[in-house]
Design a protein that fits this description.
This protein is mainly beta. It has one domain (12-55). Helices cover 10% and strands 46% of the residues. The chain contains one helix and four strands. A hairpin with a 5-residue loop joins strand 1 (12-17) and strand 2. The two termini are 20 Å apart.
C-alpha cells in the first residue's frame, strides 16, 4: 500500500544519527494519499504520492 501507483515511490531506509553520532536504523515513508482518479475513463481509487498529484501526472475524478 505504501507505494505510489504512478511513479513507484515507496519506503526508503536510512539512519537516525544522534548528537554523539551513534547510528540506528529508520524508515522514511513517502507521502502517499488515497485519491479517486480517472483510469481509462472510469473513476478508480489509487494510492498516489503528493509529488505526482502536484505535478498533474494524475487526472482526479
Amino acid at each position: 500500500m505504501a507505494k505510489c501507483a504512478v511513479c513507484g515511490k515507496g519506503v526508503v531506509f536510512g539512519n537516525n544519527v544522534s548528537h554523539s553520532h551513534r547510528r540506528s536504523n529508520r524508515k522514511i515513508h513517502a507521502n502517499i494519499k488515497r485519491v479517486k482518479c480517472k483510469v481509462d475513463g472510469t473513476p478508480q481509487h489509487m494510492y498516489v504520492c503528493t509529488r505526482c498529484l502536484r505535478s498533474g501526472a494524475v487526472e482526479r475524478a
